[in-house]
Amino acid sequence: MKERGVQGAGVDGIARRVGLSGAALYTHFESKQDFLCTVLREELGASARRFLSANATLDEVLARYLSLAHVRNPALGCALPAITSEVGRSDEKVRQAFEAGLAEVVRALGEKLGSHDKAPGVLAAALGAVALARALPDDASALAVLESARALITSALQADVSSRR
């Protein structure tokens, strides 16, 4: 799903990747939507846990998220840049699972930031930058987008800290 998006996540292909047949997968899930909801919960939960990584500073989290490695290897990173635009065209059950997972990611990022109010904006800027960078054909252009977003996010957060003093 992180590589091909929600619509490109065929149940048979996903089942083969985990060593099952599509029929075997359907013994555990009633529909593709049920399967997608489970995958969304798992993937967004994993993203939230990465944001909460106790050993990583906010700068390290941003550097990892806004990196060429994350851009060029979607299967290894956050699912949000790959799936967000498609979820709006999905059924209500999938959108509700996405909303619950997104709330978990925003909460985790808010804890890392020390500001739950800033978390949605920081996340939107970061995932938008990754999605845009993925659409660009060369690393130099992608890196320019990522570095610009990181500078903008860092500047906005520093300005917020300064204004509270």
TrEMBL record:
Coiled coil segments of this chain: none
Listed Gene3D superfamilies: Homeodomain-like, Tetracycline Repressor, domain 2
Record's keyword terms, sorted: DNA-binding, Transcription, Transcription regulation
GO MF annotation terms: DNA binding
Keyword set includes RNA-binding: no
A Pfam family matched in the record: TetR_N
DNA-binding region: 10-29
Domain HTH tetR-type residues, every copy: 1-47
Annotated PANTHER family: TRANSCRIPTIONAL REGULATORY PROTEIN
Listed name of the protein: TetR family transcriptional regulator
